[in-house]
Amino acid sequence: MFVMELTYTAPVEAVEEEMDAHIAWLDGYYAAGIFLASGRKVPRDGGMILAGGVSRAEIERIAAGDPFTVAGVCTYRITEFLATKTSADLATVRESPVV
Could you tell me the CA-to-CA distances from 31 to 20, 25, 27, 34, 60 in Å, in that order? Predict the structure, then answer.
């Protein structure tokens, strides 16, 4: 599983100009079952995405295709972790520790 942390590198007004494209991009990965949750950080200096079911290389490719990234209004910090314990709602994405 991955925590994808976006940090804005441009004023929020420039981010807003790309918002419709970013939301369409998010919707595509929600439909594919890769994105599990997302939203703005507080204070609003970026956002967070929880994703799973793909490799590190694939998640980096996905982040590179975000319209925010393409427009140069954000950077990503991607953290991988093993979701060995989850709520019942996220049981399908639970992972086993590597032995």
Answer: 17, 10, 6, 8, 18
Please list the alpha-helical segments (H only) found in 2-65: 12-17, 19-31, 56-64
pLDDT in tens, 16-25: 999 999 999 9
Residue with the larger pLDDT of the pair 97 and 33:
33
Is residue 72 within 8 Å of residue 9, measured between CB atoms?
yes
Distance CA 49, CA 77 (A): 11
Predicted TM-score (pTM) of the model is 0.92
Determine the residue type at 54.
V
